[in-house]
Every structure is written in C-alpha cells, then in structure tokens.
Amino acid sequence: MTEIADLQQRRQALNPEQSFIVSAPAGSGKTGLITQRVLRLLCSVENPEEILSITFTRKAAREMASRIHSALRQAAYSPRPADSYEAQTWDLASAAVERNQQLGWNLLEMPGRLRIQTIDGFCRYIASQFALETQFGPIPEPSEQPQIHYQSAARALLDKIEEPGPIAEQLAVLLAHTGNDLARCETLLSELLGKREQWLPLIYDAGENRHYFQQVIEQVVSDNLLQLDEALMPIAGELIELIDFAARHVSPEDNLALSQLVGIRELPETGLAGLEQWKLILSLLVIKSGEPRKSLTKAHGFPSDQKETKARMTVLLDWCREHPELNELIADVMHLPDAEIDQAQQKMLDALSTLLPLLAAQLDVIFQQQGQCDYPAITLAALDALEPGAEDGAVSDITLRLDYQLRHILVDEFQDTSAAQIRLLEQLIAGWQPDDGRTLFLVGDAMQSLYGFRNANVGLFLNAQRHPVGPVQCTPLTLSSNFRSQQGIIQWVNSAFSQAFPALADISRGAIPYSPSVAVKAADKGQAVSFQGFAGDDHEAAEARYIADLCCDLRDHHHGESIAILVRGRGHLRAIIPALREANLHWQAINITPLASRMPVIDLLSLTRALLSPADKIAWLALLRAPFCGLTLADLLVITNHVENHNETSQQTNNALLVPLTGLREAMEAPLTQHGRQTLQRVIPLLEGAWQQRGRGGLRSSVEQLWIDLGGPATLANSADLSDVRSYLDLLENWQTGATLADWNSFKLAVGQLYAAPSPDDAGSDSLNGNDQSSTIQIMTIHKAKGLEFDHVILPGLSRGSRPDKKQLLRWQQHIDEHSDSSLMMAPLGAHDEEDDSVYRYLKREDSLKTRLESTRVLYVAATRAARRLYLCGTLKPLKNGQWEPTGNTTLLTPIWPILEAGLKEQIYTVQQTDVEATPDNNKPAKEVASLRHMRRLATGFSAPPRPDSSLSLGTAETAAESTTDNDSSLSNRARSMGTVLHRTLKQIANDGMQQWSVSRLQQLPLTWAAQLKELGMLAQPNELDSLLQALNIMLADERGRWILERHDQAQCEQALGYKYTDSGHMGTSVIDRTFIDDGVRWIIDYKFSQPAQGESEAQFINRQSRAYSAQLSHYAKLYRSMQPNPVRCALYFPQIPMFIELEAE
Asked: Contact 4/33 with Cβ under 8 angstroms?
C-alpha cells in the first residue's frame, strides 16, 4: 500500500466546529469518514439525538448505523487495533463511549437513539410529527404502485370536460393541442405526476407570464452568444473578412441570407435580434449535424477559382477543429430558441397553469380515498410543514422546534439530491447563525450522480461547493485516495475519464469535470483493463459465448474471487443468461427478470382471473393448460367445441365454463385423451369446490388453496419459483378487497412492476449441501451495483444505445448562473399536427445533454466497481480505412472511445469478426437447431399430497411462520388474524426505528388494524383492537421487547429463506419473524401470541411451547448455519405476557 494522499483533508473533515462539503470519489471510503465524523460529534453534544444523519437508501442507512454501532462496541469490548486507520476509529469511538457513560445515554443498549434516516424517512417524520399543523394532515403509507393512481387522477381530471365552466374550457385547450386524443392526454398528464414536487411550486408562475419567459430566453441567448463571441476573439478579424468575401461571391439563388451580409464589419450583436445572423455565420463552420465542416463550395461563397481565399478559410476551419470546446459552444448557439414566445404556446401554458395544480389536487383526493401516498407527496408535505407562514417571519414555528433539537446534520450521497430536497434542507437550517456551533456536513461524488430519472440534480452539488446552503457556507474538501481498486485500474480510469468528462463545470446541465484518484493498492500483474470488440451479424451470441468462457476461466483460475456482470438494461442479458446456463455456471440475478414473465406467476394470474370471472374463456383455458392441469391442445379444442355447443343449447350464463366442463367430465363418449379424461376427473371437483366457497374468505387464501390442491407446488422447478409464487400471493393479499379485486387491470400493472427472486440454483447449485458458491456470478444493473465492489467486473453491451427521450407534455429548466441566481424556462409540447416550437426543442436538447452526461457517469460507476480486473465488451463497425468506430453516438462506448481506439491501433485490444456461416440450403445459421417442443405437466393420475408441512408453507411475508406453523390449538382463527396484523406492525416499527413511533402515531393504529382485519374477513371488536394495542405497548415497555426491535447488525424482519435438500428433493421457503446479529451472535426470534391456558402454570406453558416449536427453530438455525459462520441462538417471544424463552438450536 502507498501513503494516503489526502490524509490532511480527512483529518480536517473531523473538525466538529466547521461545516464541509466533501467530494468523495468511488472507493474513497466516504462511509468510514462519515462514521468517524459522527463519533467525533458525539463527544460534543449533550444528547445523541442532536445529530441527524441522512442518506438516500435504507441499505445505506442500515450500513451507516451498523458501522457506528460496531465501532462503539469494538471500543467498549475490544482492544485497540494495530492498523492505523482502525486505531483512529477506535480512538474516536472510545471517546464517544466514555461520554456515553458520563451522560447515561445507553447507546450500546439503545443504538436507536442515533438518528440515521433516509431522506424520505426524514420527510415522513416531519410530515407526520406536525400533521395537524399542515394542510396535508396525517401521512399514510407510500404506495408501491403510485403510477396506477397517477392514471386515475389524470382520468378524473379529464372527466371534467363534460362539466361546464372554466376548467372545461382549459381542458378543451389541452385536448385540442394534443389532437383530441384522450388516451394520449391521459398518459402525458400521468407521466408528469411523478415529478410534481419539481413543477408544482413553479407552475403557478407559468400563466399570464409571457413577458418573464421572454426575458429569460433573451438572457439565455445573450449569455451563450457572449461566451461564443469571447471564444472567437482570436480569429474574429479573419472570420469577418472571410464572411464578407463569401457574401460577395455567393449567388443569392444559392444562399440569399448569406449574400445579404455584404459589407459586414463586426460580429453580430449578442442578443436575440442578432441570433439569426450568428447561426448563418456558424453554418460556414459546421455542418447540419454539428460536426466541423471539412469542405467548402461555391454554395458557401468560395468558388473553386478562389484557391487562396479558400485556403485561408480551410486554415480557420482547422483551427476550429483543434478547439473542441469551441465546437460545443457553436452547437449550443445553433440550438438556441430563435423566436419570441408563440401565442398558441403561451395559451397552452396558461391552460396548464390552471390544470396541473388541479391534477395534483385530484391525486391527493385519490390518495386520501385509498389511504396511501407517494414519496413526492411526503416531500411536499414536509416542505409545507417547514414553509414559514405570514405570521412566522423568516423561519416557521415548526422549523424552530426542530432547530432546537438539532445541532449537526450530515447528508450522504448529496450528489443525488433534488431541488425539492435542497429546499427542505435550507428551510430546516434557516434559523442557524454563523459560528453558533451547529454544522452541516455534505458528502457525495458528483461523478457518481445517476438518478436524474428520480429528479436528482447534480448541478446542486456544484452550487453547494461555491455558494452557501441557506445560511451555511460549507468548506469544500476533495478526497483522492482510492482503497478499492488496484493501481492498474485507477490509472486506466484516470486516463479514460479525464477525456470523457467535460472540461468545464455547468451547474444548469450538471456537467462535472473529472477528479482523478490515487491508488492505495499496488498494481497487480497483467492487464488491468481489457476490451473485446465484436463485429458482424452474430455479435450478440459471440459476446455471450465470450463472457461465459471468461467466467469459466475466472472460476477455474481465480477461485474464491467475486465476479459481477453489470448491464445498463435488462434486455442486454437476452443471450448471456442462456450462455451461462450452457456453461453450467452458477449465478445470481438481482431485479432482472420481471415477475410477470415467470411461468408460475403467469399460471397464477390465469387461476386468479378464472376465479374472479367464470365467463373468461381465455383464463379458464389457460388454467387447464397450466402444468398442474396439463391438458393438451387437442383436449382444449374438444373442450372449446363442447362449451360452444353447450352455450347454444343452454340459456344459463352463470358459471359459463365450469358447468359445461362438469357435463364434459360426465360425458364419457367425449373424444378426450386418456390423460385429459383423468385430469378432468381430478380437477373439476376442486374447481367446483373453490367456486362454491368463493366470497367466504380472502381472495388470496382462495387462490392459494386451490393452487395447492391442484398440485401447484409439485410443478415448481426450484426454490426461486416458490419465492416468486409467494411474492405474487403477497401482492394479491395487498390488493384484495375481501374476495375480489376492485381493479383487475391495475393489479396486473402492479404485478408487472415486481421482479422475480434471485435464482442462485439456476444452474444446479444447492445452498444446503456445502457446495462452494464463493465464485457465484452476480448479475445486476449498474444502478443496483452502486456502492458495491467485486474483484472482477464484466461490462457487456456497451455499444447499445439508450432509449429515445419521450415527448413530455411540459418541459422546464431552472437556469442557475455563476452568482447562484436562478431563472425558469418552460415550454409545452407542440400541437399534434405542428412541429415543436424552438423553446421546447431547446429544452429537449438540454435534457438530452443531461442524459448524455449522466451516461458517462453511469459508465464511471460501473468501471469503478472493479477491484482487480475490468472487462469491457462492445460491438463495432468497420470503416473503409480498416479502422473501427462505435455503432452509435448515445452508447456507453462513446465517452471512452478515444482510449479504446488507441488501444485497438496498438493491438492492445482486439475485435472478433462474427459473420454467420450460412448453410447451402436455407441460408440460416449453421449452428441453429430446431427447438425441442415439450410440455411440463403433472403425471397422469397425480394426487395432491396432504397439506404441506410447516417448512413448505407459503404464507404471506407477514404470516407464513405464524398462520400455518403455530401448533397451539388454543389459538382461534380470530386470534391468528390479530397476530397477523400485529406481525406487520412489529415489522414496520423495527424497519422505521422505535423513535419514529410517537404515542400519537401508536394511538392511530387501531384504525389501521380494523381495515387490515376486515380484509382478512374479520370484523374486529373495540376490545380486540384495545388488546392488540395493549400487547404492543407491553412489548415496547419490556426491555427484551425493545432489544428485539432495536437496530442491529444484519437485522431483518419476516426474512424468507428458500432451501433445498438434495437427499430428499424437498424444497421450500421458511419465513423468520426477526433475526439480527448482536455481539457476534445470530439471533432468531419467533413471535408467538399464545398465553397460558386457564390453570396452566408458567413452567407448564414454557414446556408446552418449547416442545411445540423446538423443531421449527432448529430448522431455522440449520438454514443460517449453512450460510454464515456466526453462532446461532433461538428464542420465542410472547408480547402479550411478555415472556422470552430461549430454545436450544440443534
């Protein structure tokens, strides 16, 4: 290891009296720095709650809490380590432990006192704490599928077109503008709602404000032209002479506008009036695509006989070509809006200024009706709480109350903040004064800002480096040491991305100059970064084979080292996954396969639809075709004909398909196959029974029970299938209203938003048989990989372009100048039969440039995940001169093409030609073989086994372990349902942190429980809801109960663990109520809601419960021992008593 280059900056960042904004590139150890800062701040406060740490994901919040708590425990119970960095952390933690003991904080026992929250969680805390003082009121749970509600809000607004009045008039303007296409209009409106925290505060100024927007346009034009004018100063005189020459020699028929520049003596004025002439002059320097012009003709005013003057112009063009920053300025000017605000466009803006606030209000109404919200609603509610009213002055009363509690705020991943979140932070610290001892600590890496699609604005990070955040001026610090990657990778990354990133910062666009890193790790032997190109028709398959061969080589020669395949989009894996399977490689794919594409889920959708609609012929036939029925196409044809004949002769419309099926089963002369006849004999009684029982319970329980009775579990291929089924059934339970679904299409959309479970056994791996999975390949998107690291990183499909930008109904940009002053530009989409106006086109290009800049940052994040080796893959196309070039301008390959091109020329990298060999007869690929046709189904004569045992229970994520494994017969169905909803609440409290649950929030729980119990088919009595609340309060007051719910290392609630035993073939999923690591021990806690029977002693009760659940907890312990080295201890916890019983885990 080399000396840490930025040691002085790291020490300075620990100064508890100063505010900082720290730029921390990939691998620089920013989480460790934040941990040290928090430990240092703990020594300067009276209470740990005076420190607030904010990050952007729950995973990051858990990691930060785990790091801090672990450091405190190490300092309290372990000797000072020898490593200098670890020793520094130990010293800081030791001082914090001493202060903890002096002031009686009990941080080791109650780590939840450390306020570490996500930004969304903190917004919710503010909005909930002060719900009665804001216009939003109590904040419900965020919806997992808010897009469905966005569509409903747009539809509800458009329905007002039938109501006479000003709203209908404005809707008429909107509809006319979009071609009277209601469906398109609904889509455009719904797409805007997910970003409403951005435009809602701005849209009120859009109406009747043409003069302001015109001023902004003129200012933007003037700023750009002034920059260009300055850049052209070295050649201005020569350029003016040559323009005059061209104007005198061009024919008016060829270029009338140019011919009118005869006698030009200076460059045009730098304002909107001179923009047209500027564009005309620049057209002599660049072609329409924006590339520097290479040749001149008489049409440009340079006849072939004027060689001397033409040569002068060629020299000037060469000078322009040598200054890429000038070409960027020229491109910017060529795309500037060149006209005043169009009257029709302003009319549309006026309409939107009325309609969009109504659209947001309509969404609020729908959320209130559904008892849900979304994260923008939480952010807006928090902003509303902190916004000072007319009677508050500069700082709101709520801000002052929060201000009293907070002395230090730390924000991680600050580069991914949105404008709304910055406003929230500014309101929060509005009352701070210079040198009052309060500090702001912002940490991030602008080069890793990836979340523009979530409204992140990296330009705000740059602005905070230059200007105060509210009243606080932060001192900029830049870290440079990289502890992750070996020196060879760092050198390549520095070389490639110093060219790929823009040279100058631009706050409005989010253009970030590159900041080089210094490797702490020495270089490995061999080539650190490799690139393999592919050309030809078979490039996709060739790339997949190359990656599979590479993974095999890494598995065989780099045993135990981690491998990751990172992709920009899930479609990039279309050929790679089959190639890995063919090579018998193990992999784990995270959030890659849509749940709705998994066959077990498709079959469950058909089963659900069939139970909901007996007349849905397609759903019933799909159900009969599913593996648990398995009828052939020939049998389905017989059934279809029989149903049609039955419908012609029968007037009965209810049970439209089930009744004919019953008749077909009894008609032995029907031409069914033997398998079809036996299958119908088995399944029809089950279908009839399910139909007769409909409405007597929840839809989820009906679907699940019928699926089990039909033999669904026996058709699953592996534990991943079982996890997918559980995910579907859990979602169904969340969406059900009693025994039905209120909106089938919305439910299908919700299914489409989920992803299938990771599949570690796709290639035959077994998690419980000791197979070494250390070389399992991780497959994920680049966004998911952020914050992770791997020894070997493979980046395929770098030549694939990004999706084209959607046409939004409204575009806007807040332009921030060098003085941190902002101005707003807005433009609606052009009318359906017209071109978009120049302002909209300008804003669209600005969005496109932001996306292109973010693509470079995406590639940077991907490349910096690698610790030892980085492998790049992409498709190239050959040029006539024997060289290569990327296949598009919007690919991830484009930013780093200069360094790759140099490597190809030096033969460091290679390109594989992949032209497909054709067969003589049909010109199809020689290796292509006919696909095998087979059908997966249960054997003829299959009979369902008895109800599954506890280890195979599906359950819900909240109830699986309880509802089907509780062997206490004293529990009634009502008690089980009450246990289910209490499970959910305990999970939420543990995830949120107990400090987030105030007494008032706890008191609101009975209303929530009543609604949840109603969905489970139970109408709760007031005394039952009171008993639930009493049980919860008992647990929260109990020392053991609070310990269980506190934040711990690797804590999980309702953790589902899939497993498979090869000796018996048994597979299933177990759901563990609560598990965590405390003091190096893995604890498994199972909640139970039993109480001693009348006359039963405490000893007898403990003995009975221990016998009932000893095997179950031993099974859980076995699962964990197979996955991790920590010792395992198991316990039952009874919140109603309360009682904690530790059981021996064999």
From this structure: no
